Each structure stands twice: as C-alpha cells, then as structure tokens.
Amino acid sequence: MRHRFVVRAALVLVALLSAGPGQAYNGGPLRNVTDLTPTCAGCHSSVGKEQLRVEPDAFAASMLVENRHYKVIEEGAGPYKDMSPADRQKLLADVKLMDQNASAALSAPPTLKPGQEAQITATVRGGHGVVGVWLMESDLRLQGRPVSADGWFIVGAPKVWGADGKEQTKWVDSRGPGLKKNLNAVLIFDQQADLAAKKFPEGKVTWTVQAPHAPGTYTLTVAFHYGTEKASSVGTVTTVAGAILPRGGPGGPSGHIIFSKPVTVTVR
Length: 268
Hints:
single chain; alpha+beta
C-alpha cells in the first residue's frame, strides 16, 4: 500500500515538474518577476560542461546541449519526428549557429572597500525574442545563488538596454506595486536574430551594488538564457489558438544556458 502511494506521489511530482515551467517559460518567465537562478529553467540545455562540474557524470551528460537538444533533432525523435530530414538538418544547423554566436561577459572592479558602491555590467549577445540575464555568485547551474546570498546588496533597479540601444524598463515595471525592484534577474525584450545575415542581437545590463561588508575574495558571474529555434524558418509551430511555439515545444530543450567567465573581486 505504501509502495503504491510513493509511486503515485512520484508521478504527480514528475508531471508538475514537466508541465509547469515549460508552459511558463515560453517567451520568458514573465510572471516570475523576482530574483532568479537557472534552477527554475529545468528544461533548458546547458552549453558547456563547466556549469555542471559538480553533478554526477550521467546526469551532467543528459543536460548538455549535444545530448538534450542536438541529438533529438538529428534523430527525428519526439516533436521533431514529423519534420523532413532536410528541415531537421536546417534546424540543427541554425540552432548550432545560434550557439556559436551567443556570448556573455561581465565587468566589475577588481577591488572594493567593504560596503563600497560600484557598478557591475553584463554584456550579452545572441538569442531571439526574450532573453534572461541573472547576476550570480557562482557559475554552477544548479547550485549558484543570487549575489545577495554572498553579501552583495543590489541598489535599486538594474538598468537594461536592448539591441536597439534603448533603455528598457518593462521587466522591472512589471513588478508588483510597492515591491522593491533591486532584482538580480532581468529580461531583455524584442531581441531579433537574423540567421541569413548572421546578425545577432546584443544587450547590456548594469547593476549598482554595495560590496559585502566582510573582507574576502568574491566571485561574480551572469547566467545567460536564450532561445534558439524561433529564429529558424523551420523552427516554429503555431497552435490552434495562434500561439507561436518553438518546434520542440514550450517545455523542450531549445532554451539554452551559458555563463560568463567568472570575475573575482577582492574586498579589503
């Protein structure tokens, strides 16, 4: 009897983990206007092993883009089974092109005094539509935390610029009335990739922060979340309700994650 209960509970949990985030994150986690880490993007694919270096080998391999996304397209499995071989080949080439041209970098002062105010700036390139940028204290996908967990204090709302060079406030403005807007996470909207022309959108986010009060050496990085399939001419499907989804589905692995190279700040 107890065995049946455990199995049933496990199935419910799997269903919740599979359905909820996938539906919510097509087009970005628009309702999660709060501090974020990549743990909320369970369906995304990891670009690079380093962000999974503390995970068991088999699990880490299952999260890598080569196995989680490329291989499924190549084999015509799951949501790609009805595509022609030529279309799957094109989609795979387009997705890889998106990855080859995606990047994230972070700049911060190398030394600060305890509590000193400074600016930290992330520059990102790539993605299509909505992209996400999270400021974190570690580049571990499943264990990294917002910078505030390591003593940093974010002063005010982060400043965001999209590919057109104009400042965006849409993300922070969608936070509830009366709530503070000093978030570690932001979305950048209206990013457009042109695969034929090999043009990829850029964006920038600047956080004003106060350094931790405890002297020491601190690490900072950004996690960059971006979609890959919607930029391809064969990478979308339209639902009966008119919603445009990535070919792999709203809970598919077409969302990818990369981290910037961590920077070190000495507080003394």
